[in-house]
Hints:
Layout: E1 2-3, H1 4-10, H2 16-24, E2 28-30, E3 33-34, E4 41-42, E5 49-51, E6 54-55, E7 64-69, H3 86-89, E8 98-99, E9 107-114, H4 117-124, E10 132-139, H5 144-152, E11 154-157, E12 160-162, E13 165-171, E14 175-182, H6 189-196, E15 201-209, E16 212-213, E17 222-224, H7 227-242, H8 257-272
Parallel strand pairs: 9-15
Antiparallel strand pairs: 1-4, 2-3, 2-5, 5-6, 7-9, 7-17, 8-9, 10-14, 10-15, 11-12, 13-14, 15-16
Amino acid sequence: MIRLAKFIAQAGVASRRGAEALIKGGEVRVNGKVVREPGTLVDPEEDRVQVENRELSRPFSPIYILMNKPRGVVTTLKDPQGRTTVRDLLKGIHRRVFPVGRLDYHTEGVLLLTNDGELAQRLLHPRYQVERTYQAKVKGVPSKVALERMREGIEVAPGVVFKARVRLHRVLKANSWLEFTLREGRYREVRRMCEAVGNPVLSLKRTRFGPLSIKGLPPGAYRQLTQAELEVLYRTVRRAGQQPGIDGREGSGDPHGPAKKRRARTSGRGQRAGRRAKPQRPS
């Protein structure tokens, strides 16, 4: 038996939170009856689950595909402009999968596709801080000051600050290669940082996503993850979720947990003293 929300997330329909919203909104039926409780237990092999009148396949069988996305391909399942999509490259895969995150049209490299919505959500959520490594060929050679600015943080737009671990990887005659390590995928982050320091990106490749790399995989090719790779991927997510986040809280727990405990203790002291405790400011 499995919780209904988890079953829907594993089927790749939505994230766990999205699945709970669908259930509460009356969009889910189990054996023909509307169910509004996300914690309802279902048997994937026996129960018939429908989401928005579409029956989910059972039993759920996850699939994990590693692709070396080439340049000139859109990271989506359909493109209204008729451009080649990553789905078009999956000639031998007939099951529904979706890309975990995005690489823009001109960026190549590591791309994971799956039908496992729960794992995808963890890999992308900032709480888990899964590392992404990029190699960028840039115009010119950035100065030490420029590299330090990118490490410390650059305001690329009002109120928008990007920063990353970055090192000079290789110097060419007129240009150079930089290596960036990020812990959150944000829109055109590497390109915007390089533009801000006066060294625009000429080409960009993602070489690693968590523990996954494209070593030995030519552009446009793909393969399924091995069991060993999948186990390492899950360990990475679990380990990252247990590390303190930017604000020092534990990533795997309730992000408001410590604050709640502090308020509870303060409230207890206030009651013992015969007065109401003052509310604490959020950390």
